[in-house]
């Protein structure tokens, strides 16, 4: 269950290790104790080549979008999104651009979400 999609502007690509961001973000979600089993968390990191931040100044961004099955309260969602921002921020090295690190939590309708596990060998 939760799906974590982390997007980042390509103008800051050299300022962080993509694998480290995925590990830190996933570890933050596991540490929250909200998700069981922990390996139900699915995370991916996606560069965004064409983007604009605000008035077009030389800014960059990292955005962690967390899709959750419906039913969690706002306090839990806020705790999760804050944990993601806190986990990612220290991994971004200083550089010429301002970097906005953001996170949001969205509900996936529990009644219409479908999942099937295909066993491994």
From TrEMBL:
InterPro entries cross-referenced by the UniProt entry: 5-COMe_2-OHmuconate_Isoase (IPR004220), Tautomerase/MIF_sf (IPR014347)
SUPFAM superfamilies reported in the protein's UniProt record: Tautomerase/MIF
Domain of life: Bacteria
PANTHER family, per the entry: 4-HYDROXYPHENYLACETATE CATABOLISM PROTEIN
Protein name, per record: 5-carboxymethyl-2-hydroxymuconate isomerase
Biological source species: Zoogloea oryzae
């Amino acid at each position: 269950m939760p799906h974590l999609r982390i997007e980042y502007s390509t103008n800051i690509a050299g300022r962080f290790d993509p694998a480290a961001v995925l590990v830190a973000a996933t570890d933050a979600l596991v540490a929250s104790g909200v998700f069981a089993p922990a390996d139900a968390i699915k995370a991916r990191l996606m560069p965004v080549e064409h983007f604009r931040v605000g008035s077009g100044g030389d800014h960059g961004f990292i955005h962690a979008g967390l899709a959750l099955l419906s039913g969690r309260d706002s306090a839990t969602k806020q705790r999760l999104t804050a944990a993601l921002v806190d986990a990612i921020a220290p991994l971004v090295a200083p550089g010429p651009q301002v970097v906005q690190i953001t996170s949001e939590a969205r509900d996936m309708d529990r009644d219409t979400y479908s999942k099937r596990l295909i066993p491994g060998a």
